[in-house]
């Protein structure tokens, strides 16, 4: 039997016995998914609370009314997987965010690396960040996640170095690194940070700053991946070795 679709609503709404799924979520459920009375759906708040529901009524133009059968509070996954993602060109940023969300990344930090081609400034930066956040939300629905990944504000190399110092383990992806990520034993708890550079690679200054802060250089394999792909692959390797998968 296929699993029921997932939608998001405010925590206060989910705590009611009858949930009115309105707005864009309600329109998607009624028009695109064509849910009807008696069908199952799950409604979450994106922060761990999930309600198992049954559709009791469809209100054209308003959304769906759902009766709550049960609720569960799912803890935040541990270890927490953070990917520091150098900004890719074009729509590859949204592709990276979607794929990382699907595999289970918990936090995505857009990084203005020195060799990034795109530059996020003013309104352009705000629009790009908003697209990343919408992409993470939609991918979390598609992949049935109880927690929507956090997409932080744009960070600098100095910010990344600070994140590294506080992490239980930080890994900077380098194609020529001596150590393979597949042979690394990640910690079973805490913040695990993966740093993905731009297509042109990290500068010597960035690499030195990150290693000084405590990051471990690791390679993924014999081939060189695009920046929009490397984070997803690295996260999958780490998730499979950390006990999360």
Percent strand:
25-35%
Uncertain parts: none
Main sheet properties: 6 strands, parallel
Order of helices and strands: EHEHEEEEHEHEHEEHEH
Structural class: alpha/beta
Q: Give the mean pLDDT.
A: 94
CATH topology of the largest domain: Alpha/beta knot
CATH homologous superfamily descriptor of the largest domain: SPOUT methyltransferase, trefoil knot domain
The number of domains is 2
Give the name of the CATH architecture of the largest domain. Answer: 3-Layer(aba) Sandwich
Shape: elongated
Measured between the Cα atoms of the first and last residue, the distance is 23 Å
Description:
With 245 residues, the chain is α/β, with parallel strands linked by helices. Strand 3 and strand 4 form a beta hairpin. The model has no long low-confidence stretch (mean pLDDT 94). The chain folds into 2 domains: 68 residues, Beta Barrel (Ribosomal Protein L25, Chain P); 163 residues, SPOUT methyltransferase, trefoil knot domain (Alpha/beta knot). The radius of gyration is 20 Å and the shape is elongated. The two termini are 23 Å apart. The chain has a 6-stranded parallel β-sheet, with helices on both faces. It has a 5-stranded mixed β-sheet with strand order 1-3-4-5-2. Helices cover 34% and strands 25% of the residues. The chain is built from 7 helices and 11 strands.
In short:
Helix content is 34%, strand content 25%.
């Amino acid at each position: 039997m296929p699993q029921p679709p997932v939608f998001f609503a405010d925590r206060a709404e989910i705590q009611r016995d009858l949930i009115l799924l309105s707005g864009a979520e309600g329109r998607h459920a009624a028009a695109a998914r064509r849910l009807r009375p008696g069908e199952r759906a799950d409604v979450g708040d994106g922060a761990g609370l999930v309600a198992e529901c049954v559709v009791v009524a469809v209100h054209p133009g308003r959304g769906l009314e759902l009766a709550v059968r049960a609720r569960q509070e799912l803890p935040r996954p541990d270890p927490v997987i953070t990917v520091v993602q150098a900004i890719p060109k074009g729509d590859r940023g949204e592709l990276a965010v979607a794929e990382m969300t699907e595999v289970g990344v918990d936090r995505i930090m857009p990084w203005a690396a020195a060799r990034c081609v795109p530059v996020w400034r003013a309104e352009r930066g705000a629009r790009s960040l908003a697209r990343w956040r919408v992409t993470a939300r939609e991918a979390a629905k598609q992949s049935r996640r109880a927690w929507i990944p956090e997409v932080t504000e744009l960070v600098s190399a100095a910010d990344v170095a600070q994140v590294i110092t506080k992490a239980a383990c930080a890994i900077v992806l380098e194609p020529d690194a001596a150590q393979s990520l597949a042979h690394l034993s990640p910690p079973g708890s805490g913040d695990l940070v993966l740093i993905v550079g731009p297509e042109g690679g990290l500068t010597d200054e960035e690499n030195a700053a990150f290693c000084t802060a405590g990051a471990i250089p690791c390679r993924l394999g014999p081939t060189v991946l695009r920046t929009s792909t490397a984070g997803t692959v690295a996260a999958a390797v780490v998730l499979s070795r950390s006990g999360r998968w």
